[in-house]
Amino acid sequence: MFGKSQFVKIFMLSGMLTAQACGQAVNDPYPDFIEAYEDVITIGYQEFATLPDIDDQTALAMDLEREPGGDRYFVNDLQGVLYTLSQSGDVTEYINLNDDKWGVDLRWTVLERGFTGLALHPEFNQAGAPGYGKIYMLLDTSNTNPTPDFRPEGGNDAHDTLLLEWTANDASAAIYDGEAPRELMRMEQPFGNHNGGQIAFNPLAAPGSNDYGNLYISNGDGGSGGDPMNMSQMLTSIFGKILRINPLGSNSTNGKYGIPADNPYVGNSSALGELYAIGARSPNRLAWDSKTGQMYVADIGQNTIEEVSPVHNGANLGWKVWEASYRYVSRNGVDMAGPQADPDMVYPVAEWDQQDPLMQSSGAASSGLAVYRDGEVPQLNDLIIFGDLPSGEIFYVSADNSPGGQDPIRRILLRDEGEIKTFLQVIQEKNVEQGKSESYRADVRLAHTIDGKLFLLNKRDGVIRLVTE
User: Residue 28 — pLDDT band, cuts 50, 70, 90?
Assistant: First the structure.
């Protein structure tokens, strides 16, 4: 006799096969759930630092970076504050974008708009070098008066996204001591969601190499849903792309940054030179494998599949022709026929079903990304680690042998006072300790710093946690 769960799986599989035969959209392509109990890795953690609330709003930690050549960590709050953290976790406000003297006019929301991206130039602490003292920020602003460098193919001019360069006079100063930022790039956003994501310098690029000092920018498809203006595959659009620029150069159209000569579309009059990879939907996080040099991106799916994909110069990640390994049909699902049928596309090393029981009712979203090699937490070595934004679930696959799909995905759980917990459970218990209501979602992010540490960030309790054995 079948149990209830077996009946549900059979019903789901039957419905999937019927829809596939009829060429209809399937919104649940993985009837077998992510394994919840086998091959689980457990990790410890310690509370490293706590960011302060801002006007009774819990800190919204987005990224954490170790300063090149220095001892501090820098962490950005979506609400517009950049902090530094000492090695002992002491928190210092470094720049507040909400200060009127900067003229930023930050526009933020808890989920997708605000101070989204942070990167420190690899020469940040090299006195006399062109990149000395330079910090880069990707953020959203309500000030749409200046003429944008890039416009979408429609939409309602929701706000602008800016790439700013700040230059400290003394890189070692406790508080930013430089002038107002220089605006490198301005993008008019057609909708409120799917804005800029992470910005990052390749941590593996050595001085003198082709990639040293180049800044990668993950940029969403403009928002709404289903890429209504088909911009992700459009070579003349900056939306739905991973960009690559030299922030210290000047050969761009606006003359404020450089375009590397080995970018894939340089010299193509029908394409933007800034493009490095196309076909992204809402790229959330970038990571590099220190063993192979491979770059990866965590890209948020539409209503069906989440994905982590490899990226190379000129890669096409498929959206919105493809959603992960399957042809995109609509917000109602994908076509299961002919998976990964186009050899010109790049397909995920890991993908998962938004309907999986481990996800929360608030949806699913690919987030957090690290390729862990030779670190201080041995059980994580040689793994690609990633998370699901709302549920706070943390997953892994092998960094050396990942066939793709959902089957290889396994969970990472936290040890807390002798008990095994999900990250969301840890956050909820902290909320109670703080005298706050338990959060219904985690908004998890991972930060894998250049000194090899792995941190857990979230938007729900303000605590930054260092992963331990």
Answer: confident
